[in-house]
Amino acid sequence: MTWLVSGGAGYIGAHVVRAFLADGIDVVVVDDLSSGKAEFVPDGVPFVQANLLDGDAVRGALAGVSGVVHLAGYKYAGVSVERPLHTYTQNVSAMVSLLEAMDAVGVRNLVFSSSAGVYGTPTDEVVTEETAPAPESPYGETKLIGEWLLRDQAAATELHHTSLRYFNVVGSGDPEVYDASPYNLFPIVCNLLSQGKTPQIYGTDHPTPDGTSVKDYVHVADLARAHVAAARALDGGTKLAPVYNLGSGTGTSVRQIMDAARRVTGIDFTPGETPRRPGDPSRVVANGDLATRDLGWQNTHTVDEMFASAWAAWPANR
């Protein structure tokens, strides 16, 4: 049993690769290194540096593979508004190319990295898989289209699939792998604190207990194990639901994250406060019961543990 992980040199992808290896499953990585890092790929794992639009390279990488975990793509929701064509090319056209290659070589199993971005700003107090999608960025739109592609390809062929809708993925399960995104809260806070600078809170007037926005944070190692469970289920012929939310069911506010950062690092700081940014939702929390039932999904880390793992892996702190 061997699985291909597209985007396996990225922050999440590298953790997925490690989770597969820990479960005794061989892995092949395809990544164009546009945001991934070659050093994140473990020694001994076959690595093909290619974009998914390169059909020949992808077909070659799929030889002997049981299934695909598809994580590769352009993942910056805010910037996708400024670069819609690039976002659609990397997230939709590239996925079409991957599905064509899989069909050509007879690979029938796929686990798709979707996103909470498909929900936009939900009005539900707790988001479930029944919450109506309403994406508000090209990024969210492309993730929803990716789910549609799988649905339609499965209707036409023998493709077996599921899509995992991620919420806010944080932390590190390996001190050599870290989140380098310039847009995510944890790396922003780690970067600023490691430079002796003060993090900012954007918006303290939200209708939440402490006035700051509340989001659903999940540890990347827990998320990675859900991919292994989905892959094993599909490989064994189990029919999975088309989508699963990977959320904890509880929210954590930005101020609570700052408090955790203070406790974990021992750095006594008072975050700055600035007006909220347009479009920032006040609360996005997901129900993960379906993933718990079918995939054994659990978010096993406290907020302090999540931040501590991110802080330990941050390059300036090693």
UniProtKB/TrEMBL annotation:
Q: In which pathway does it act?
A: Carbohydrate metabolism; galactose metabolism
Classification via Pfam families: Epimerase
| EC number(s) recorded for this UniProt protein | 5.1.3.2
A GO molecular function assigned to this protein is: UDP-glucose 4-epimerase activity
According to its UniProt record, which reaction does this protein catalyse?
UDP-alpha-D-glucose = UDP-alpha-D-galactose
Keyword annotations: Carbohydrate metabolism, Isomerase, NAD
Q: Does the keyword Iron apply?
A: no
Cofactor dependence: NAD(+)
- Sequence ranges assigned to domain NAD-dependent epimerase/dehydratase in this UniProt record: 3-247
Task: Indicate the enzyme's highest-level EC class.
Answer: isomerase
Q: Would I find Isomerase among this entry's keywords?
A: yes
Query: What InterPro entries does the annotation carry?
Result: Epimerase_deHydtase, NAD(P)-bd_dom_sf, UDP_G4E
SUPFAM superfamilies, alphabetically?
A: NAD(P)-binding Rossmann-fold domains
Q: Mention one GO biological process in which this protein takes part, according to its record.
A: galactose catabolic process via UDP-galactose, Leloir pathway
In terms of NCBIfam families, this protein maps to:
galE (TIGR01179)
Report the family membership.
Answer: Belongs to the NAD(P)-dependent epimerase/dehydratase family.
- Protein's name according to its UniProt entry: UDP-glucose 4-epimerase
Q: Species name for this entry?
A: Kribbella sandramycini
Q: What's the source species' lineage?
A: Bacteria, Bacillati, Actinomycetota, Actinomycetes, Propionibacteriales
- Name of the gene this protein is made from: galE
